[in-house]
Task: structure prediction
Amino acid sequence: MNFEQEFRRTSGQPFTSEGVEFMLSYRITVPLSGVLSITYKHCILTPKQGIRLDCAVEMSLDKDKSNAFNIWSDSAMRTVRVSCEPASKVMIRNLWDHGDGVVQSWHAGAAMHAETSLDGAVILYCNSTLKNTRCRDLIVEIASG
Result:
């Protein structure tokens, strides 16, 4: 399977293959606590991996406030907490950098799929390259903080 071809065929919309729904990004609703707890469960070292969060309202990460954050696995704590207005929608996508300082996402076969754990956390399985269809390069758990 070629993710890039499939996303072109579906005009960027999610598609299902062998019972798994693949997507370019995942949208999550901020819980009533106003906090998302993001834990890096697994990450390959090359290329550098991370996630991007985008929201229509301002989010807080440590002392920083923004509508968008790139959170890199090589420089973030294993678990980070992002605060945001409850019921806001946050879009999450995977990122990578091959060492040239160019942040890449949404192309060259980028894909992810999501599972919900028994405790309600969302686990995102992401890939990083055109030839990689395993979606196991970056595994991130997102839970109510």
